[in-house]
Amino acid sequence: MLSKAFSDGWGPFWRAVSQPEAVAALKLTLVCSLIIAVFNSLAGVVIAWVLVRDEFPGKKLLGAVIDLPFALPTVVAGLTLLTLYGPGSPFGVNVAGTRIGILFALAFVTLPFCVRSVQPVLAELDRETEEAAASLGASSTTVLRRVILPSIAPAMLAGAGLAFARAIGEFGSVVLISGNLPFKTEVASSWIYSLTQSSQLSGAAAVSVVLIVVALVVLTGIGLLRRRFDVSEAV
Amino acid sequence: MKSRWRWPLRVLALGYLALLVVIPVASVFYRAFEHGVATAWDAVTTPDALHAIWLTLIVVLIAVPLDTVFGVGVALILARHRFPGAWLLDAFVDIPLAISPVVVGLALVLVYGQAGWFGNTLAGWGIQVIFSVPGIIMASATVALPYVVREVLPVLQEIGTEQEQAATTLGAGSLTTFRRITLPSIRRGLAYGVTLTTARVLGEFGAVVIVSGNIEGRTQTLTLFIQDSIENLNPVGAYAGAVILAVVAFVVLAVLGGDRERRATRWRSSSDQSPSASEMLLPSAT
Hints:
- The complex is a heterodimer of chains A (235) and B (286).
- Chain A is an all-alpha fold.
- Chain A is 78% helix and 0% strand.
- In chain A, α8 packs antiparallel against α11 (201-229).
- Mean pLDDT of chain B is 81; it is low at 264-286.
- Chain B folds into two domains: 1-34; 40-281, Orthogonal Bundle (MetI-like fold), CATH 1.10.3720.10.
């Protein structure tokens, strides 16, 4: 891959990754992935909280629902979202061919990472500290801000990083709902796909190298983070 | 947290899951069967659909055993031998999980395609990899490569070598030791690994779409059939195909589901190991 990307030297590599459509696709991919990593790690905390601290009938099923996006093939994921939020949506919400659609698909596939990274940390959290803080007069927002958030922050960050790494490479679920409109809803993996379809392999390899480098940097960062904070590996 | 937060949080969490996961997945089932079971059945028994199902099964039957043998082999090497570069092998195993499936497919095209490193040599022998079934099998096997290793390796590290050594001392050959001692102890981890591998191979799209050429009735797997059906306005076919894959996903979750807590503790207790990408990328696997 590397040898193909740089087969004609730095110049063509740079031209391949800096041509407008490639830049637009990479930018869109990174921005959407970042938005969804942040949003879903917040949603992940809420869901993990309900999983750990709340009790209600049918809670066992919730675990399966959270893992479903992981077990479901990405094309099926894309189709499910297209059915509900595409043309002919029963809710009257049509996000097919828009950037919102990409966010929907990425939110779906990255959900398990965000919930499962925080859940074990929340489960092990010492409730006595919270009770002590509360008995000393701390309001529930203060407890959240001063006691709970600091302990789960590294795990949240790790989950967000995993979601981001997954999101930048996502293809199957995005391709159906995004419509792949160049400069508008074409993500990096679709751009790589269309380059390979027109046999522009070195250009495709060049954009791939960018994706690989970003993913490896993020994953290495998470590895360091986990060592530093001894974040549970039971994701 | 105070009880006044309980209900808002519960509604927020369940509402998000319902809108993002439950209702969309349910709606696929509804759409598949809204014109009756017979229509759905007809849609997945057309020649193209049957061929796609058949091809998917063949790919599973070849790619999963390949990954299983490779996975157990690599796990044994990593767990039982110390050699320079072991960490490199360890890291390399995870690469398919860290990068986009589209990129995996592209890498195979670069190596085995017409203009690729081995493409010409293989073509000289009359073997076509890209745009043909061997390419699909290779792509599927590559993306699902890490799962068996990641499930079996921690079990091997945990059980240690004492029993194996005892068996060897008592005169058992290495094959007998593997069959009678090692295999039974890794059975559970191996089963998980194989389940995950199968799920991934069945559902792979990005890597396969690049190497297969998506030729109807020839190199179209079930996931490609679904995508093709949507684009060619055959929604019932797409929904019915999706239902097949969704049902498999439910079975996978049922197999993996009940055991999460035990597995979570296992990983936590071995916290001296650095996490692998697969441990991080596989919520339900680890």
